[in-house]
């Protein structure tokens, strides 16, 4: 089998690279090193915060490329390569609209960290999974930072409880994406994992054909579309699978790693 001419691999985290319990396969670090020896750059492309991703990949964080916050912030070796911010007046509109929906918990995402005003213990437990650097505040509208995203949490499901309202009010002016069953993100209209990867293609010297990606939910669609070799996970949302060239085994079967090992004939 001929090894594909791939120079860049991006993998979503939750539902994709991580198993159903949210754990990283210990084999990942060996696979990463084998890819690096072949000059293949690997990126974690996630709705998660940059600081959270750093913690997950601590042993190799200085080598990893992070497409964080659904593509609104790209970091490599501690340096910002790309970001896509939201104007403060738009942040105010989004927060005020979110406050009108019963059951919504708001995470205001800035370059320096995440900010929350909810005091609900269950919400805090969920939020800490994705935002390692976070600050409790009395009023999100008083926060001073460069803002890149507003993440909305609703335990009854954002596709039904939040998306209709936000698509109607912000769909034309912003990127509104259901990023997981209980999460929805609001970003600049031009922001996506795909836009971030296109920037990297233009600045780091790899092509569409040399790009491989793996994803499972709606926030991965643009990433799959800008990748010559695109994989939706077997456990992906049914509507997302239509955007991928191939289907990878589920995240419960380490589908990302097994696919990479097979395609690159990596040592087991």
Structural overview:
- By secondary structure, the chain is α/β, with parallel strands linked by helices.
- It has 2 domains: 8-83 and 191-264, HAD superfamily/HAD-like (Rossmann fold, 3-Layer(aba) Sandwich), CATH 3.40.50.1000; 88-188, 2-Layer Sandwich (Hypothetical Protein, Haloacid Dehalogenase-like Hydrolase, Chain: A, domain 2).
- Helix content is 31%, strand content 25%.
- It has 11 helices and 14 strands.
- It has helices at residues 13-17, 28-37, 50-56, 88-98, 121-127, 158-161, 163-170, 193-204, 221-225, 238-241, 255-264; strands at 8-11, 41-45, 65-68, 73-76, 79-83, 105-110, 113-116, 134-136, 147-153, 174-180, 183-188, 211-215, 229-233, 246-248.
- The strands form 2 sheets. The chain has an 8-stranded mixed sheet, sandwiched between helices. It has a 6-stranded mixed sheet with strand order 8-7-6-9-11-10, covered by helices on one side.
- The radius of gyration is 18 Å and the shape is globular.
- The mean pLDDT is 96.
Annotation field: number of helices: 11
The CA-CA distance between the termini, in Å, is 17 Å
Radius of gyration: 18 Å
**Spatial strand sequence of the major β-sheet:** 5-4-3-2-1-12-13-14
Strand-and-helix sequence, N→C?
EHHEHEEEHEEHEEHHEEHEHEHEH
Total tally of structural domains: 2
CATH architecture of the largest domain: 3-Layer(aba) Sandwich
> What is the CATH superfamily classification of the largest domain?
HAD superfamily/HAD-like
What share of the residues does DSSP label as strand, in percent? 25-35%
Uncertain runs are none
Question: Residue-averaged pLDDT, rounded?
Answer: 96
Q: What is CATH's topology name of the largest domain?
A: Rossmann fold
Large-scale geometry = globular
Give the helix proportion (percent range).
Answer: 25-40%
CATH classification, class level of the largest domain: Alpha Beta
Question: Structural class of the secondary elements?
Answer: alpha/beta
Oligomeric assembly: single chain
The biggest beta sheet is recorded as: 8 strands, mixed
Number of strands: 14
């Amino acid at each position: 089998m001929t090894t594909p001419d791939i120079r860049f691999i991006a993998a979503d985290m939750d539902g994709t690279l991580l198993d159903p319990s949210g754990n990283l396969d210990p084999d990942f670090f060996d696979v990463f090193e084998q890819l690096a020896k072949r000059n293949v750059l690997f990126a974690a492309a996630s709705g998660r915060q940059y600081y959270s991703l750093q913690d997950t990949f601590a042993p190799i964080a200085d080598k990893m490329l992070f497409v964080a916050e659904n593509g609104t912030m790209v970091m490599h070796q501690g340096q910002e390569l790309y970001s896509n911010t939201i104007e403060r007046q738009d942040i105010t509109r989004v927060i005020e609209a979110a406050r009108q929906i019963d059951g919504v918990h708001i995470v205001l995402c800035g370059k320096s960290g995440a900010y929350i005003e909810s005091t609900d213990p269950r919400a805090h437990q969920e939020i800490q999974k994705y935002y390692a650097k976070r600050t409790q505040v009395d009023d999100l509208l008083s926060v001073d930072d460069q803002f890149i995203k507003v993440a909305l949490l609703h335990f009854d499901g954002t596709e039904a409880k939040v998306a209709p309202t936000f698509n109607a009010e912000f769909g034309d002016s912003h990127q509104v994406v259901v990023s997981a069953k209980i999460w929805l993100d609001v970003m600049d209209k031009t922001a996506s994992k795909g836009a971030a990867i296109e920037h990297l293609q233009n600045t780091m010297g790899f092509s569409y054909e040399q790009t491989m990606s793996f994803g499972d939910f709606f926030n991965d669609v643009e990433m799959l579309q800008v990748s010559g070799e695109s994989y939706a996970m077997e456990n992906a949302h049914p509507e997302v699978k239509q955007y991928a060239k191939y289907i990878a085994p589920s995240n419960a079967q380490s589908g990302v790693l097994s696919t990479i090992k097979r395609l690159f004939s990596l040592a087991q």
